[in-house]
Structures are given as structure tokens and as C-alpha cells.
Specification:
heterodimer, A: 379 residues, alpha/beta, 3 domains, 5-stranded antiparallel beta sheet, 4-stranded parallel beta sheet, 12 helices, 22% strand, B: 290 residues, 3-stranded antiparallel beta sheet, 9 helices, elongated
Chain lengths: 379, 290
């Protein structure tokens, strides 16, 4: 077992102990002594300067010197280094806990575990949190280092690229929290886009909130996806209305579905000829003609709007998380308990001595008061 | 040993016209100035008593016989000589600021007066051992008395109580006990004084004090050392003076009241104050109260 000091220069402060003793001795040499017939009517003067040179205050002086010594030694930071303690310090880990927004702070404490140093980083952007955590870990004394991601860990919230910013010697661990569901329902809606392009609209509806997320893919609409038939006199108006509806965009069930729109007044023969397996939508002739495109759009949508609903996993998969997880790297440098030391015990000793000093002073004052009271009674 | 060693001849001469008389009856062996508890046939009329056969006829009051048709014999108070024992406090506290010199001086003056008037005077001091000069009269005894006074020094411990206890054994007949002390040992001394007074002695309490200890008349903080016990105390006189003087005055009043209540004479002498007027006043008061 050995002892080393974290701030050995602070030990020079031990010289402070000599100050009250020196003052005591120096002042005592100069103190005036007066032989007096009786002290029974004299009260001691409560002056600190006098107390210092009072010989009967030796225990108090010793107590105060011990307080100074304990305080100075605490500032110097003594460390009792035993093999087991050294091993323990070598195994310690500094943890930076990155919390997803909205995660309860208690989660951070659980994630920090028995880390000798831990700090929580909660930023809106995980990239910023990773940068802060890395910077903080670099400032820690030699020890294992680890970044812990705590939160729901939804898909898309982390990427391998983001994790690449963490140095390889720093371990990575994930703590998933409850809430937010494990899967989400997905509604896919097809919509014909302008210029014959289908928009594949994806609506995500989480189990416990109303948030909708859209994404989509583009698909070319086949030329004969939708046709319209009307009385010959109205056929140009019908064609124009269909084009206008397509240009505005339509929800579409499936790229494979074809629709035939038949206006009232269209020849039944033509309808049957053009149907050819397509879904038939009959509708009244729009009137006035200006509303023809809207009427066509509504008529088609009543048939084609459809959705496919399913569920998809919400969180990053466990396999993925395992792949990203890695233990803290080896500790570089000597793992000395340079950050703590045993000063806390010495501060405790100093506090205990302060209490003892207070008690001694009270005892002195009390006995002096009792003597005075006795003398008054005698008088 | 010349008396000038302990008392100046001028002070003594100035008081030569006075005498130390007792205010109580004392028991002496010879005829003297002082009242005796025994009735005799001297100069001072005391009382009548019925005539008894054998009484000297010259003491029969014939005028009373003429008025009452009864025989009365006149009795006179017998005067006797005085035995005075001076008990001097020789504890170390008396060495402060000339207190002991004052005590020795007043003892020498009063002792000289007692001896000069033909009475007996003795001195008793107890330190590590008793130092006693038994009360005797005669001018040859004055030398012994003053020599003993000159050899006393305030180097003993607190022993006034022991000295007073011994005084009770020394004074077998009623006499005058004059105690000269600063009376810091009042707890032990006052009960002994009370006992002496109850024994019939004429007890005179002379409290000698220094002006400095009455007013704490000294400047600057210092470490005060108790001359009796050696105990030390850090004191700033300016801050404690008020409380100190009040406590001292209360203590002095207690000593005075206790002494007077028990029928003792009390005289306070302070160093630096003229001694002769104080003693003259004291002696005149005693003579007036006779």
C-alpha cells in the first residue's frame, strides 16, 4: 500500500499550523503578567488574541492545529493506493448517456449504472449529442469510456454514419425504453399523378399518436388506365373533364386497375365495347359543364380510392443494435484514482474536529460561567 | 528592634493622645481602663443591691435608707486591664500594593497604644506555622511585639481561618481581638469571627485594601495571576472594570454588614489614604461609644 498526493504542493499549507503556535509563543513572551490578590471578581475577557496565549487553552490549540492539518491534507488529496483499489480504478468506466428527447431523466441514471463519472446529453439532433459526449469523454481521466444511447430508438433515429463519429476506443451501448409501440400501422394509398405518374403515398399512423408521415414512389400511369365515354356530342367535354381530373391528381387503388367512366347518355354498346374488364363508373352528366372535371374526379375516386393497411416495426431491430454495440476499449495510461483521492475522509475528520473544538469552547465558557456564578453567590 | 521599623514615630506621636479602649467588658487581671464583667468597688457606679451583713458600711447609701427605710449597698463597675490580640493575615494576597505594610503599620500603632496604656498586646499570624506573641503588658514587651511584626512577611497560603481558630484558644479570657486582613477568605474567616464575638470578645475587623484592587486601576490587557492559587486569567481591565467594581462593592458591603450585625467593629483602610485621620476617627468613635 502506498500513499501519493494529488496536489502535493498543497502540503506546504501545513506550515499554517505553525502560525498560531508561533503567535502563541511570540505573544506570550510579550504578555504582561500581573500578580493580583484574587481573581474572584474578575471576568475573563473574551478576546481571541488573549486566548491564543493562554496556556490552559493548549487542548484547544491542538484541536485547531489538527483542524488545519486535516484541511490542508484534504486539499493536498491523499490517495491510499492498494492493489485491489488500483484494479478497481482500472475497471471503472466513464459513461456519456445520450437521451432521446422526451425520455425521462431517471432513464439516464439507470443507464449510467455504476460509472465513476457520468453525464447526460440530450440534444434535438443526435449528431450534436454525440459530438458533445465525445468531447466530454476525451476530458475524462484514464478509464474505460462508453456512450449509452437511451430512448425508444426508432427506426431512422440512428444511423451507422452517425455512430461512426464515435472513436473506436469508446464503447457503445443501447438502452431501449418502453412506450411508442413496437410496430406501426401503415396505410398506403395510390394516387395518379400529373402527366400520367402515380404517386405512392405512405401514411404512417403510430399506435399512440396522430402523426402522419408521408413518403412515396413514382410510377408511370399506363395510357389506358382510365377512359371515359359519353354521348357523341358530349364526348369532347368528357375527355376534357377527364384530363383535367388526371392533371389535378387522383387517388388510385392499384396500378393494375383500369376504370371506364360512362356518362349518362353514352351508348350502351360503346360502353360494353370499351369496358374490356375495367371497372365501370356510371355517372350523371355534369351540369353545368364547368364542374365536369370535379364530377369526374369524384366519380373515379369513389371507385379507385383504396388503401392497403399493414404494420411495420417502429424501432431499430435488436439485431442491428447488437451489431452496433461494442465494449469500452482498453484504458490508456495508468489508471490512478487521480480524480477523487481520500480527501472526503479528511474533510470528515476536519468537520469532526470542528465539532470537538466547538464542544471544547462551550465547555470552557460553561465552566467559566459556573465559576463566575459561584463567585457571585459567594459574594 | 526599634518601633520605627514598622511605624513612623510621627504617626505614633500624633495618636499618642488617644487610647484603645474596649466597647465590651473584658476580663483582666489588674485594674485598668476597661470595664470588667465583675462588679467591684471602684470609681464608676454600677447599681444598688440589698445590703448583706459584712458589706462595707461606707458603700451603704444612707440617703436611700432615709427615703425608703431599707439598706442598699452601692456597687461600682470594676475596671480592669485589656488583653488585645492582633491577628494579622499573612497570606500572599496581602503583599499586593503595600497592603501588608499598611496592616503592619496599623497593628504597630494600635499595639503600641495598647501597651503604652498599660494593657496587654499580642500578635498572631499563621502561615506554614503559627507565629504567636501572647498578649502581655509592659514596655519591655513592646520590643518583642514590634520585633515579631517586623519579621512577618505575606508569603503564606490562605490561613486566616486557622489563625482565628487559634486565636479562640489563645484568648482564654474575654478581650479584644483585632483582625487585620483583606478578607478575601471571608468564607472561612467570618464564621470564626462570629464565634469569637459569641465568646464575648470585642472583635475589631480592619480590612486593608489597596486602591488599585478597589478600582481595578490599571491599564492594558494582561494576564492576571491569582496570588493565592496561581490561577491565571486574561483580562482587559477597561472592559470588565464596571462589573468588577460593582462586585467588589457588594462584597465589601457584605463583609461590613456581617461584621456589624455580629457586633463587631469594622474599619476599612485603603493604601494611599492618610492613616492617621482614619485611625483617630476610629479610636474617637470607640471612646465615644464606651
Amino acid at each position: 500500500m502506498s500513499v501519493f498526493w494529488l496536489s502535493s504542493s498543497a502540503l506546504l499549507g501545513l506550515a499554517l499550523i505553525a502560525v498560531p503556535i508561533a503567535i502563541h509563543l511570540l505573544v506570550r513572551q510579550q504578555s504582561r503578567r500581573v500578580a493580583y490578590p484574587s481573581l474572584r471578581f474578575l471576568q475573563p475577557s473574551q478576546l481571541a488574541a488573549f486566548r491564543r496565549r493562554n496556556v490552559q487553552d493548549a487542548p484547544l490549540l491542538a484541536c485547531r492545529a489538527a483542524i488545519l492539518a486535516a484541511a490542508v491534507m484534504a486539499l493536498a488529496g491523499p490517495v491510499l493506493q492498494t492493489p485491489s483499489r488500483t484494479a478497481g480504478y482500472a475497471a471503472r468506466v466513464a459513461r456519456a448517456v445520450i437521451l432521446e428527447p422526451g425520455v425521462a431523466p431517471e432513464v439516464a441514471a439507470d443507464a449510467a449504472g455504476d460509472a465513476f463519472a457520468a453525464r447526460t446529453f440530450a440534444r434535438a439532433q443526435v449528431v450534436d449529442a454525440i459530438a458533445d459526449a465525445t468531447r466530454w469523454l476525451n476530458g475524462q481521466p484514464p478509464a474505460g469510456r462508453e456512450v449509452v444511447f437511451a430512448g425508444a430508438l426508432r427506426r431512422g433515429s440512428l444511423s451507422a454514419g452517425q455512430l461512426g463519429a464515435i472513436p473506436p476506443s469508446v464503447g457503445i451501448r443501447f438502452v431501449t425504453t418502453e412506450g411508442g409501440g413496437t410496430r406501426e400501422s401503415v396505410l398506403r394509398v395510390l394516387k395518379s399523378g400529373a402527366n400520367g405518374v402515380f404517386l405512392h403515398e405512405r401514411q404512417v399512423r403510430l399506435e399512440d399518436d396522430e402523426t402522419a408521415v408521408s413518403d412515396g414512389v413514382a410510377t408511370l400511369v399506363p395510357a389506358d388506365m382510365v377512359r371515359i365515354v359519353a354521348a357523341p356530342a358530349e364526348q369532347p367535354l368528357a375527355d376534357a373533364a377527364l384530363r383535367a381530373a388526371l392533371d389535378a391528381g387522383l387517388r388510385w387503388t392499384d396500378p393494375a386497375v383500369r376504370v371506364l367512366v360512362a356518362w349518362a347518355g353514352a351508348g350502351e354498346v360503346d360502353v360494353q365495347r370499351l369496358r374490356n374488364g375495367a371497372s365501370l363508373v356510371r355517372m350523371e352528366r355534369p351540369s353545368p359543364a364547368a364542374t365536369a372535371a370535379t364530377a369526374v374526379s369524384e366519380a373515379i375516386e369513389g371507385v379507385t380510392v383504396a388503401s392497403t393497411e399493414g404494420t411495420e416495426p417502429v424501432r431499430i431491430g435488436a439485431e442491428q443494435l447488437r451489431a452496433w454495440t461494442r465494449p469500452p476499449g482498453p484504458v490508456h495510461g495508468e489508471a490512478r484514482p487521480a480524480d477523487e483521492g481520500d480527501r472526503r475522509w479528511l474533510w470528515g475528520v476536519a468537520l469532526a474536529l470542528l465539532a470537538a473544538e466547538h464542544w471544547l469552547r462551550r465547555a470552557r465558557t460553561g465552566s467559566a460561567a459556573v465559576e463566575s456564578a459561584a463567585e457571585v453567590r459567594v459574594a | 528592634m526599634s518601633r520605627d521599623h514598622v511605624v513612623s514615630s510621627t504617626e505614633l506621636q500624633s495618636l499618642r493622645d488617644l487610647e484603645l479602649v474596649t466597647r465590651k467588658s473584658v476580663e483582666g487581671l489588674r485594674q485598668g481602663l476597661h470595664r470588667s464583667p465583675f462588679h467591684g468597688f471602684s470609681a464608676e457606679f454600677s447599681q444598688y443591691r440589698h445590703y448583706r451583713p459584712g458589706d462595707d458600711l461606707k458603700y451603704v447609701d444612707w440617703k436611700a435608707f432615709g427615703r425608703t427605710d431599707r439598706l442598699y449597698t452601692r456597687q461600682f463597675r470594676e475596671t480592669t486591664n485589656l488583653a488585645a490580640l492582633f491577628v494579622i493575615d499573612v497570606s500572599r494576597s496581602m503583599s499586593f500594593a503595600g497592603k501588608f505594610d499598611l496592616a503592619r503599620q496599623v497593628t504597630a500603632i494600635l499595639g503600641t497604644l495598647v501597651l503604652d496604656q498599660g494593657d496587654a498586646a499580642g500578635v498572631l499570624a499563621v502561615d506554614d506555622r503559627a507565629r504567636l506573641v501572647p498578649p502581655r503588658s509592659g514596655h519591655h514587651h513592646l520590643r518583642v511585639f514590634l520585633s515579631q511584626l517586623a519579621h512577618l512577611a505575606p508569603t503564606g497560603g490562605a490561613s486566616l481561618g486557622a489563625a482565628l481558630r487559634q486565636a479562640a484558644t489563645v484568648m482564654k479570657r474575654r478581650g479584644v481581638v483585632i483582625v487585620v486582613s483583606d478578607f478575601y477568605e471571608d468564607q472561612e474567616a467570618l464564621p470564626q469571627l462570629h464565634r469569637l464575638a459569641r465568646m464575648g470578645h470585642d472583635v475589631v475587623v480592619i480590612q486593608t485594601l489597596a486602591h488599585e484592587e478597589l478600582a481595578l486601576d490599571m491599564g492594558g490587557a494582561a494576564e492576571f495571576v491569582d496570588m493565592e492559587s496561581g490561577r491565571t486569567l486574561m483580562v482587559q481591565p477597561s472592559t470588565v472594570r464596571e462589573g468588577y467594581t460593582a462586585a467588589v462593592q457588594q462584597w465589601l458591603a457584605t463583609v461590613h454588614d456581617t461584621a456589624v450585625r455580629d457586633g463587631m467593629e469594622y474599619l476599612r483602610l485603603v493604601t494611599g489614604a492618610p492613616l492617621e485621620p482614619a485611625l483617630r476617627r476610629f479610636l474617637m468613635q470607640r471612646r465615644g461609644g464606651r
